């Protein structure tokens, strides 16, 4: 049954909201060929840890080009450009992104088809020069993905939909970093199928 509201225009059945319920509004990608990589979120194996651990304590840290909110930045841009060039392109590049009480995080990669390849690394977010900036964090995450791709070079994937190799690295887009459980963080990554 359709309802007519004279104040607002009628919403057609083909129209959809571009937002997700990930905790904060996530805008849709401008390119229809860019898709979020569906990753399993880390949960501890023990029943006690799963029941009593704290989840999502911190807001996600986003990575965007200036003027393109929610679109992310290609990882090959992050790895190839120098700090001055990347700093002028990235929104909030010099922002301190972690709360003062966070000194180290556990970074995890759970790529579809490679669940059998564990990737857990400790990342110091307070360096000798002070707290890590958004740009430095983007570089640390990208470096982890470069190493992960190298580590999985001879592993077989159970999901060919989400290929992962040095050839597909230029298609990876860093969108955000989420606090998934206690000190564990995972990157929200998109893949360009174009």
List its salient traits.
about 190 residues, alpha+beta, two-stranded antiparallel ribbon, globular, disordered N terminus
Describe the structure.
- The chain is an alpha+beta fold.
- It has one domain (53-192).
- The chain has four helices and nine strands.
- The protein has helices at residues 47-52, 75-80, 83-89, 134-151; strands spanning 34-36, 61-62, 73-74, 104-109, 119-124, 126-127, 130-131, 172-181, 184-192.
- Strands 1, 2, 3, 4, 5, 8 and 9 form a seven-stranded mixed sheet that branches. A two-stranded antiparallel ribbon has the order 6-7.
- A hairpin with a 2-residue loop joins strand 8 and strand 9.
- The protein is globular and about 40 Å long.
- It starts with 33 loop residues before the first strand and ends with a strand.
- Residues 1-8, 10-24 and 48-53 have low confidence and may be disordered.
Tally of contiguous helical segments? 4
Beta strand %? 15-25%
Largest sheet: 7 strands, mixed
Count of the domains: 1
Fraction of residues in helices? 10-25%
Terminal CA distance: 40 Å
Q: How would you spell out the order of helices and strands? A: EHEEHHEEEEHEE
Shape: globular
Counting DSSP E segments of at least 2 residues, the number of strands comes to 9
Structural class designation: alpha+beta
Calculate the mean pLDDT score and round it: 84
Radius of gyration: 19 Å
pLDDT < 50 runs, ≥5 residues: 1-8, 10-24, 48-53
List the topology elements.
Layout: E1 34-36, H1 47-52, E2 61-62, E3 73-74, H2 75-80, H3 83-89, E4 104-109, E5 119-124, E6 126-127, E7 130-131, H4 134-151, E8 172-181, E9 184-192
Parallel strand pairs: 4-9
Antiparallel strand pairs: 1-9, 2-8, 3-8, 4-5, 6-7, 8-9
């Amino acid at each position: 049954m359709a309802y007519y509201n004279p104040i607002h225009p009628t919403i057609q059945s083909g129209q959809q909201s571009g937002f997700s319920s990930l905790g904060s509004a996530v805008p849709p990608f401008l390119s229809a060929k860019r898709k979020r990589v569906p990753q399993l979120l880390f949960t501890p194996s023990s029943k006690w840890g799963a029941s009593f651990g704290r989840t999502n304590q911190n807001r996600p840290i986003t990575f965007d080009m200036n003027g393109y909110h929610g679109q992310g930045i290609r990882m090959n841009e992050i790895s190839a450009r120098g700090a001055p060039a990347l700093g002028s392109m990235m929104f909030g590049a010099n922002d301190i992104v972690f709360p003062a009480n966070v000194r180290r995080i556990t970074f995890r990669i759970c790529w579809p088809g490679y669940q059998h390849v564990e990737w857990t690394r400790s990342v110091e977010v307070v360096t000798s020069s002070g707290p890590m900036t958004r740009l430095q964090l983007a570089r640390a995450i990208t470096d982890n993905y470069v190493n992960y791709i190298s580590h999985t070079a001879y592993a077989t994937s159970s999901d060919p939909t989400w290929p992962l190799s040095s050839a597909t690295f230029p298609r990876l887009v860093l969108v955000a970093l989420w606090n998934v459980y206690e000190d564990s963080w995972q990157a929200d990554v998109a893949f360009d199928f174009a």
